[in-house]
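name: query_chain
kind: protein
chains: 1
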Amino acid sequence: MFTATKDDTISNLKATGRDLNRDLSSDLHKVANQAGRKVRSLYNTASEEITHATDTVTSEIRSNPIRSSAIALGAGLLIGMLIRR
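structure:
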């Protein structure tokens, strides 16, 4: 037979709610930390790739300035023609 009082039941429900809140908060904290680490890793990888690409392009322009200028001129003309349409 159920003999718990109304106050006992309310206290038990409040304790259960606090436990659930603490568990959910802990789980969300873990997930947020994992997501943050992944985003940080992706950012660092992208940053390294962009730095490498920039260095490669700079090196190519310095070693072949005439060809690089001709390519830039051609790309500019092409983009200009596409924009006018």
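note: The chain has one domain: 6-84.
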